[in-house]
Design goal:
There is one protein chain. The chain is mainly alpha-helical and about 375 residues long. The protein has one domain. About 70% of the residues lie in helices and about 5% in strands. It is built from 16 helices and 3 strands. The protein has a 3-stranded antiparallel beta sheet, covered by helices on one side. α6 runs antiparallel to α15 and α8 runs antiparallel to α15. It is globular and about 55 Å long. The C terminus is likely disordered.
Length: about 375
């Protein structure tokens, strides 16, 4: 019995208590908000699914922590192949939802493979960067890296999922920056994007252009593309300092607010918990992001640092984009708020990313940048 407790104690020591506490606190608060957002549906399905995904995610994180991230890195080529297989399979047998063909439905289960591919891409891309770190600024390093990233991006774009594609673009930028890519690459790319923007905009279909324009003036189409933004801002604005009370938000409880349990869960918090509740969410997410980059700074090697940088990029971009679209500052592109929004795939994938960070943290010895 003593050996058993020693074994369990050794396993628990591998967990990062700060990261685990922050992610669990965020998940439980999110579960509470989902319970309120879906109370008008007359079904507990959403709460049950989210709770099961959270528990399964913690177990998955537990398994990932037990695996040395360097062992995962050694399997990089197989992980990359698995990522491509999952995305191609989605294109073949996936079903369309809200204009995106990014769901695989098996009986009662709905799985979004692109969420899980994030972890695989981060590990494989970090491994690739580590192999070319000595000549990262040479074309013979940059071109294969672009090819590595481009395959994943093209497959996701073929699914029609612009929001998820933007997440991968941000992961790529952050990891390339962390790997030491010269600033001139970013400057030239930025100028090229700005120069191409008008031509790209003109090539978009009318509904895509309207979705972008509705960000700056929702009244252009108040009952169409601007509706989500208008109702979200009304919900958040009506909450005031302390909110209208849980289960009491008019926009939420009368289902005036669209996609309230997923994309606009932050708006639910704004209406029912007010400025105080939104501040708590911001503090929790900021702490998770800061902790992730802290582990990156103290990682034992280059690969571990890059893995945490990629995970931090996911948490930062999704948080900023989701909250930005709820406030009417950024386009509505269907990105969930990490650990808060409803979604089994999103929750499970988020916990797996947390597991990667804790794996890096549990195997550090003094820190990569302290050598």
């Amino acid at each position: 019995m003593k050996r058993f407790f020693v074994f369990i104690g050794g396993i628990l020591k591998k967990f990062d208590p700060i990261m685990l506490a922050l992610c669990c606190a965020s998940s439980f608060l999110g579960l509470f908000l989902i319970m309120s957002a879906t109370s008008s549906f007359g079904s507990k399905k959403y709460v049950v699914v989210q709770l099961c995904a959270m528990l399964l995610g913690i177990f998955a994180a537990f398994l990932i922590v037990l695996i040395d991230y360097r062992n995962l890195s050694s399997l990089s080529i197989y992980l990359f192949g698995l990522c491509i297989f999952m995305l191609v399979l989605t294109l073949i047998i996936g079903q369309e939802r809200l204009g995106n063909k990014n769901w695989i439905i098996i009986g009662p289960l709905s799985i979004q493979p692109s969420e899980f591919v994030k972890a695989g891409f981060i590990v494989t891309f970090a491994t690739h960067l580590n192999k070319v770190k000595e000549y990262i600024n040479r074309p013979r390093a940059v071109i294969p890296l672009l090819f590595h990233f481009g395959i994943i991006l093209v497959l996701i774009m073929l699914e029609g999922d612009l929001g998820t594609a933007l997440v991968y673009v941000f992961i790529f930028i952050v990891m390339m920056f962390a790997a030491g890519l010269h600033w001139l690459y970013f400057a030239v790319s930025g100028v090229a994007v700005i120069a191409a923007a008008p031509f790209v905009f003109n090539s978009l279909s009318d509904y895509q252009q309207m979705r972008i324009l509705a960000v700056y003036d929702p009244q252009l189409d108040p009952l169409g593309y601007g509706y989500h933004t208008i109702q979200s801002k009304i919900a958040i604005g009506s909450g005031g300092l302390t909110g209208e009370g849980i289960f009491n938000g008019i926009q939420t409880q009368y289902s005036i607010l669209p996609e309230k349990q997923t994309d606009f869960i932050f708006s639910v918090a704004g209406e029912e918990l007010g400025f105080v509740g939104c501040t708590v969410i911001l503090i929790l997410l900021s702490a998770i992001i800061i902790r992730t980059f802290f582990v990156a700074k103290n990682a034992r090697d280059f690969t571990g640092m890059l893995i945490c940088s990629g995970v931090g990029a996911v948490f930062f971009f999704q948080s900023a984009e989701n909250i930005g679209m709820c406030l009417g500052l950024l386009p509505v592109v269907g990105i969930t708020l990490p650990f808060f929004s409803y979604g089994g795939s999103s929750m499970l994938a988020g916990m797996c990313l947390m597991g990667l960070v804790m794996s890096v943290n549990s195997h550090r010895k003094g820190g990569f940048f302290k050598k």
